[in-house]
Amino acid sequence: MQLSGPTSVPRTTPLPARLEVPVDVPIDARAPSDARVPIDARAPSAPGAATAAAADGPFTPLADDAPFPAVAAEIVPKLPGLPGKDSPGWSLGDLLGPPKAGSLAARADMATVKGAQLLRTPERDEWANRMADDGAMKVWFQFAKQHRGEVGKVRGWLDTALLAATMASNSALTQVAKQKFDRQRPYQVDPSIKPPVHLPRDSSYPSGHTSSAFAAARVISTLEPTLAAEAYDIASQVAASRVYAGVHFPTDVVAGALLGTGVADAALRAAHKKGSAPLDPADVIAAMDTNAPAAAAADLEAAAA
Question: Which CATH superfamily is domain 98-304 in?
């Protein structure tokens, strides 16, 4: 598979230590009930299955009149460890799990979510819904469409296939991790949190939307470096929106971002090894770092089959 950019994605820097959310967020930060938008005033919609073909509909990743939302800029600093375009990612074995229930880190995790509820407005809720519906899949195939316009159909569709294989592999791996850690979501822990988005029912750790977004951002930024800043802005918005919406804790989204980055790096390594041959999840698993537990890797192979 033909790629632009570096010919390998080496891991040259050490892994960050176990993720801990900052403890300078007031633990009793609570959003008063009248600070929330009434449930019946929201219009959540369940995210649909987006494909490269479906992504041909109108969608602008970041229009000139829609800069990085202020609410995302307020939340992202409370997500320490979000990777950038040059940051290393994590493999399945690097995930240490969420903070222990009742610990200071777990309380700070919840406090950040509760503090984010104070930022709620109808317009921001609409942004969170857009990120929920399109940020994990559709927007990335729009980036791929833009890339095809730059490099031509043959090269462009090969790169789109790489993006699709990466995201499929990442989805399988993320689901294995979710089943392993089985963490409740913020709104399940505290029913006073009323998400403005479709309510997901699977495990909270790691965040699937965020892992997908950062996996895609890594692939897009490697294929088309001129899109790197925009891709990582979108990925950061996805991460922030999940905390804002009350469906993920900060440690969920940071872990998801690092996992997605690691999966993308493995996919890029596998793609360079295979050349123009089709890439499938088994190739990505084989390219993952060897510290992923053998049992978990076997579970992933079964999930991806």
Answer: Phosphatidic acid phosphatase type 2/haloperoxidase (1.20.144.10)
